[in-house]
UniProtKB/TrEMBL annotation:
Keywords: Hydrolase, Manganese, Metal-binding, Metalloprotease, Protease, Signal. GO terms for cellular component: cytosol. Mn(2+) 1 binds at D154, E189, H467. Residues 1-17 form the signal peptide. The lineage of its organism: Eukaryota, Metazoa, Chordata, Craniata, Vertebrata. The gene is CNDP1. This is Carnosine dipeptidase 1. It comes from Pelodiscus sinensis. Coiled coil: none annotated. Residues 230-387 form the Peptidase M20 dimerisation domain. Mn(2+) 2 binds at H121, D154, D217. The active site is at D123, E188. Belongs to the peptidase M20A family.
Amino acid sequence: MILIVSVVMLLLEAGRSSSSSASGLENQIFQYIDLHQNEFIKILKEWVAVESDSVQPRLTQEVTRMMEIAAARLQALGATVELAQLGTSQLPDGQSLLLPPLILAELGKDPQKPTVCFYGHLDVQPAKKEDGWETDPYTLTESDGNLYGRGASDNKGPVLAWINAVETFKALKLDMPVNFKFIIEGLEEVGSPGLEKLIKDKNQLFFSDVDYIVISDNLWLSNRKPALTYGTRGSICFFVEVQGGERDLHSGTFGGIIHEPITDLIALLDSLVDISGRILIPGIYDDVSILTEEEKKLYESVEFDVEGHKNISGVKKFLYDNKEEILMNMWRYPSLSIHGIEGAFHEPGIKTVIPIRVIGKFSIRLVPHMNISIVEHQVKQYLEDIFSKRSSPNKLMVSVPLSAVPWLADINNTLYTAAKGAIKTVFGQDPDMIRDGSTIPIARMFQNITKKSVMMFPIGDADAGEHSQNEKISRSNYFQGTKLFATFFLEIAKLHEQLQEASTMKTTN
Ligand SMILES: [Zn+2]
């Protein structure tokens, strides 16, 4: 008997310490979420069943239907919902297509509370069982603790986790800690046409009273440790065109007597990066932000599987050996990649041709505080110098078809502090503070136009298989994510109140 009692005591103790920092209110919320797991899965199943693939125009109707289902869900929570029309797009066959609407919703308008705006998307990448899925992509299927289905993690699961968190407060008749706004689109997978214009148009009205913007559309870096994303790299793409004459030539007739454009181009491309990966363009590193001790520490604590990443890449050796250097070169330093040569013969076999006009294509991933126009100038100047030293009679033209600025958030602001606190409560550990080496314009777009604090707050683990076969969200991530968002609402409300108090004290003093 004594033994049983002490075992029970031990279990109780263990239960208490595992959620040691969760308050009574939080425990009440967690309990509700745990008890309603089946209902939350049922809704995700219904949402995944809608083939809201925005890539194939024939499925636009389904995307629209998905937006209507989500709008109804938000309305049922008491939100005011507007389905904003984005106009039409022109199909290749000349027909025009009505684009799916975008959801703008709001719930709560208490001036004492902060207003948090959530961004997500409900369109998905195409998926077919024949692509190599083990289950039907549009039938949410649970196996080994994972929920498989297209959109489960990109991005229907996270959108629902946020909505479920709001619903939990409502169901428990709790006071909403914050005012909510939602901006949910159905065209993210095709580059969000119309979104930037809409944010600009709505900046004075919809966004005027928003304090914080949260995006939950990316992943953790590991499978176990939660993460917060505070930066993405930008990019600038270059076309380097070298033209000799009017038509391609035969190497038997002209080889040996002309300056071949492709030889010029290869010399130019070869002058861009050295064997250690360092970009050779003078001045390119001048504006890269200096590494502080505080930032350096962030890389040390990040959980990152270097060997695993190497295995994914399929290469034998990286340019760097240690984790910190690899992370820094993926996230906080620029990189230059050569992508291809247009006009060069690339088919199997041999063709003894001298291509007369070739276009080399490369891009540089930009980091704070590199400036697009300065980089453009540096690159053009450098390539022209290299080219002029060759005294080639060919014509060189360098152009920039595409560019996007990097994004970096202040990790010491309220938004990140609140999210860190929520992660500590729900997962019992500090998050990895991560960046993304690729270019995700959305965060920067929100920050630039609205001037609000923006955070990327992922809830999916690294092997969620976004855009690929067997996409999934783990059951645990779906529910822990729901708890995390609910806890985050409480944290941000608390911190916001403290901020308000501090600023009133300042003004009264
Ligand atoms: Zn996405």
